[in-house]
Design goal:
disordered N terminus, disordered C terminus
Length: 470
């Protein structure tokens, strides 16, 4: 057997030479990208809506609500939510594409074996052929493709992180809405009982001669209206519970257990500085990585205009018992090279450069859109929290005043100085004020969740065991 001057050693040396070839142009830095994508956005040193601590953004925001039931439900959703599983599968797919791109930089090796006898189709030849080839990435086409796959994989991973945060926020807001619906049902039940008591009182007054049939009819209308309102609220509560069950992967039977009361609003959340937001939010990071991937694809398309150089190596060993071979030296080794230069392809390659350049512009514009949305979401959440805090104080005072007004008009009705309609109007005003106050209290919790999501803070809790699906 003739020992070759290792053909595979030559391939390895060629690979090293190719990797030391034309250097890749780096994608734009985060600072350059922000300057280019957001030329008309002047980022202030502090949030304009105000009302929050300027300390660095804190993680574990879910624990700040102090509600173990909510934390356990979020843990269950992270395990069983179908949309999140789709996002996780996309992460695995993107990692697979990175492996494919990595493999393009390595030699490809194949083997063909043949054997046969007197009646075989090979004419009595027995042999094995080993072939290897390697494209020398002189212009960086393959390396640009590899970099684009890695950037795309990083973008998908950031998308997954943002999907987890969004799911946690959606579960938290759904949890608060379900609790609110239960509390609204209790208020509506109080309204029904009060309306029924007024109806009995109107009937008693009619029986002893101090009332009239019109008052009784109006009282019956009030009872019917209160019962209808209760039924609507019960339906809203069932739908809120079903929405929660779907989020955590359960069958929607409206039987999930929620807390009896809303969690107290945590202290003001630290919000950091606006200039740090784009470096922290996962969806902004994903958009930034897509810009980098688009940049690399432009480089890949431009490198495809240049010649491709490949090295090939092969070895074979052939024998036969039926025929006499001219050259009986085995094995036989060969080493060669190929150069393929695109001369004319109808403008396809240049069109690819134009397409990739347009995709890069689109990615930059999308980064700007997501960045501006991020700033807006934080400012809106801060402004809403300030307004809701003031509204809660106003509505709490309104509830107290309504309770006193109802108490006074009920006394007047019993002594005959006020009619039933005045009592009903004050009852309706009281229950409307109580529901409005409850709505604002729930909305304050929801806006705090929106603020954490907008800031990009993490929510992970230590060692939460998800609840098994019922």
């Amino acid at each position: 057997m003739r020992a070759p001057r290792s053909a595979f050693g030559i391939l390895v040396a060629a690979l090293a030479a190719a990797m030391a070839g034309c250097a890749l142009n780096p994608p734009p830095s985060a600072t350059d990208l922000q300057r280019h994508a957001l030329p008309n956005t002047v980022v202030p040193t502090a949030w304009k809506a105000g009302g929050a601590a300027a300390a660095p953004v804190a993680d574990r925001w879910l624990a700040s609500f102090g509600d173990p039931g909510l934390s356990a439900l979020v843990g269950e959703a992270l395990v069983y939510n179908a949309d999140l599983q789709v996002a996780a599968a996309r992460v695995e797919q993107a990692a697979g594409y990175v492996k494919v791109a990595d493999g393009a930089l390595l030699p490809s090796v194949g083997v063909v074996a043949m054997g046969g006898g007197k009646s075989g189709g090979s004419g009595g030849l027995d042999g094995i052929w080993l072939n290897a080839s390697l494209e020398l990435d002189v212009w960086g086409r393959l390396r640009y493709g590899q970099a684009a796959a890695e950037e795309q994989s990083a973008a998908v991973a950031a998308d997954y992180a943002y999907a987890r945060q969004s799911l946690a926020a959606t579960v938290a807001k759904g949890w608060f809405l379900a609790i609110e619906a239960g509390l609204q049902r209790a208020i509506a039940q109080d309204a029904v009982r009060a309306a029924e008591a007024l109806l009995r009182l109107a009937q008693d007054r009619l029986r002893i001669g101090n009332g009239n049939e019109q008052a009784v009819a109006e009282a019956r209308v009030n009872v019917g209206t209160a019962r209808d309102r209760l039924r609507q609220i019960e339906l809203a509560r069932e739908q809120a519970l079903r929405a929660l069950e779907l989020l955590v992967g359960r069958y929607p039977v409206a039987e999930i257990a929620v807390a009896a009361r809303l969690a107290p609003l945590p202290p003001p959340a630290p919000v950091g500085m606006p200039s740090q937001l784009l470096e922290r939010r996962p969806d902004v990071i994903a958009a930034e990585r897509r810009v980098a991937a688009a940049f690399d694809r432009v480089g890949e398309a431009k490198a495809a205009l240049l010649p491709r150089i490949s090295l090939t190596a092969g070895g074979s060993s052939v024998s036969s018992d039926l025929i006499v071979l001219t050259d009986t030296n085995n094995p036989i080794w060969s080493l060669g090279g190929n150069l393929i230069a695109p001369l004319y392809q109808g403008g396809v390659l240049r069109a690819q450069v134009e397409i990739r350049s347009a995709e890069e512009k689109q990615a930059i514009a999308d980064y700007a859109r997501i960045g501006q949305r991020a700033f807006g979401e934080v400012e809106n959440a801060l402004a809403a929290e300030n307004a809701l805090r003031e509204r809660e104080a106003i509505l709490a005072a309104t509830v107290r005043d309504s309770e006193r007004a109802l108490e006074l008009v009920q006394i007047q009705y019993r002594v005959g100085s006020a009619d039933l309609r005045a009592v009903e109007q004050n009852q309706l005003a009281l229950y409307s004020a109580r529901i409005s106050l409850l709505r604002v209290q729930t909305e304050r919790l929801a806006q705090r969740v929106n603020l954490h999501l907008a800031l990009g803070g993490g929510f992970d809790l230590p060692a939460i065991e998800p609840i098994a699906a019922q």
